[in-house]
Amino acid sequence: LQRQHEAELQGFVNSLHPADIAFILESLPKTERQMIWRLVSAAFDADVLLEVSDWVRESLLEAMNRQDIMAATSEMDADELADLAPDLPPDIVTEVQKGLTVEERARLIEAMGYPDDSVGGIMDFEMVRVREDVSLEVVHRYLRRLPELPDHTDQIFVVDRQDKLLGTLSLSALLVNEPEIEVRDVMGTDYLSLSPLDTDSDAANAFERYDLISAPVVDGIGRLIGRVTIGEVVDVIREDSDEQALSRAGMQEEDIFAPVAMALRNRAPWLMLNLCTASIASFVASRFEDTVSTIVMLAFLMSIVAGIGGNSGNQTMTLIIRALAVGRVTGQNLWALIKRELLVTFLVGLMGSIVAAGFSWGISRSLPIALVMMAAMIANMLVGACVGVLVPMTRARFGKDPALGSSVLLTFATDSLGFLIFLGLATIFLI
Amino acid sequence: LQRQHEAELQGFVNSLHPADIAFILESLPKTERQMIWRLVSAAFDADVLLEVSDWVRESLLEAMNRQDIMAATSEMDADELADLAPDLPPDIVTEVQKGLTVEERARLIEAMGYPDDSVGGIMDFEMVRVREDVSLEVVHRYLRRLPELPDHTDQIFVVDRQDKLLGTLSLSALLVNEPEIEVRDVMGTDYLSLSPLDTDSDAANAFERYDLISAPVVDGIGRLIGRVTIGEVVDVIREDSDEQALSRAGMQEEDIFAPVAMALRNRAPWLMLNLCTASIASFVASRFEDTVSTIVMLAFLMSIVAGIGGNSGNQTMTLIIRALAVGRVTGQNLWALIKRELLVTFLVGLMGSIVAAGFSWGISRSLPIALVMMAAMIANMLVGACVGVLVPMTRARFGKDPALGSSVLLTFATDSLGFLIFLGLATIFLI
ipTM surpassing 0.90, yes or no? Predict the structure, then answer.
């Protein structure tokens, strides 16, 4: 019965699109994942391996023997191999390399040389190239000899004998023009080309802005060395946004079924950092022990001051990080931005502090406490606004990810300074 | 001189790609934006208007007179008009409608009927359709009569006389096969089709998973009514991720140069909500006034307990929201997820609470206080983990955006319960 059940499951799994198999594998705990993986037909191995996230691929490779891995990798293109290589046992990589043609081996080595987050890291080598002095009829005949066009082919690249890129021939131009016309008369020469060392995020921004499907990658002297397609770019956009969300919570990519040890390593550092900053803030506050023991109500109000400063600063910071990501903030409009954020924050703070003052009066029945609360809250929200603008901008200026770390610094500033301002004002005016 | 300067600027602006003009307009304060907009050649008006974000479009339309708007809109397709219509004065919409053909008017009304975030809201009507019983040669001849193919055409749709979709003919199949072959022999029949009422996020997930460039949209009885292209999908992916980042900070889309009044309306409600929850938490803590006035050090430690619970819960919540977005969390693995998060949180909490206990001992020189700190911190982190899993899942179950509002609830829970647990334990064991 068990076996019959398994056969059914196998039939079902192998009737799916490789991308769906990958999604199912990603959604399963490790044991079940490896069990299902064994049922997947060897013909899908390569596609599924390339499709799954990095953290899942490891556990899949673990469940495969040498022979299966060799079989799966032997079908892959150079750029696909380059993506997979870091996860493979080194001796398998060596062996796979031996099976490649000289040209493919050169491409593999080239692709492996570029950083993961560069255009070189996401480009592929499957391109159709033609000369400029042939007629469209000749291009048509040439294409008919191919088994199929490479995925995401919306244009053909026009190169000279030295492989220098001269223009691009869109399939649209190829299809709507008469066959007698020459390539050079209908090719586009006003195209966007990428350098292999551009970042993948820059490439994604360009694809998004100009609605591209593919773009040529050229080297320093204008030779065509690869192309980037929208398929890779969509993954980059999704990964960038995932990373940003995770990094603001102090995490990296984590499988919801990853081993507990891995989750600990992922989460502990950031929590420990937060614990330290909270302890420092708490230490700052504890310097006002005498003040707080005289007026205990201050103890309950000080966390409101700290919290609202953090929340307000977080709004400013979110806006700035987003504007930085699309390149909308520069050194030139920095001052205008700070002034605007301070004004907006002051006005929201004024409204909020009236409510907070009312609450303070309600639990303390003291007008002076309410007034100190009001002043401290507005001041701490202004602290939040300054930190919210300056920290991400400074990090971006030094080439660091503006999201990562910014929120720790923001909370640290609004907590410590919030306590300091509130208890300091209270010590001066109330004691 | 001023005028010469302006002429130069005009020449420069109009040499740019409409997408670049849109980007520049988005990056400028309102006055400068409207000044530059007046320099943009009327020929680009339509493209730029369609390219800019909603909040910028309003200010551009403000700066145009009736005639300019009519001229710009008269060039647009039905689906583009439908996007723009909500921002236009109603009498202009009526007038533009009069200038359309019967077919275009029907499309415009259809497109305007679908919600913004549905497939119907992002589809366009520019498709090439062919019959299944013709040869590829006939298709070629038909295409050569077009001025160009619609943007993002990677496939042609094969329909019958009733416009029922029978299959799709990829340009690749069209180009690599011999002209004598009939369409029906090379068309794909295993294609993904969308319904106009699917959400745009579902469409984006499908495009991402299957690496699509375009997909047909069919009605309930299988008739082809439109198509969705990767150009629109990339915008949806980017907007979804922007929206998520903003909504976690309690904001909506905001121009960094939007009028201050607009910014106030955008930010104040969420800050007020946070102020209320912080006040309630502070009120909960103030019920322990006697305990705190006996041991003042508790006042400085309680904010650490509350803060770390919120941070830890935020990590869990970020992970769950992300997993929910790609459909990886279901009712079925809920229990496994909660158990895992509780375990991970307990272990991180154990490590962290040892550090926190050390700090507590350091500033209070009291072992009992350190032990209460330890227990309260672990307990509050577990509260954060439960809220971090359950709140987004519950919101998603009821069809609400899991990100929006979840973080307010999380902070509320970890603050109030953090104070309650810590001061409660202190009252029981230390007083």
Answer: no
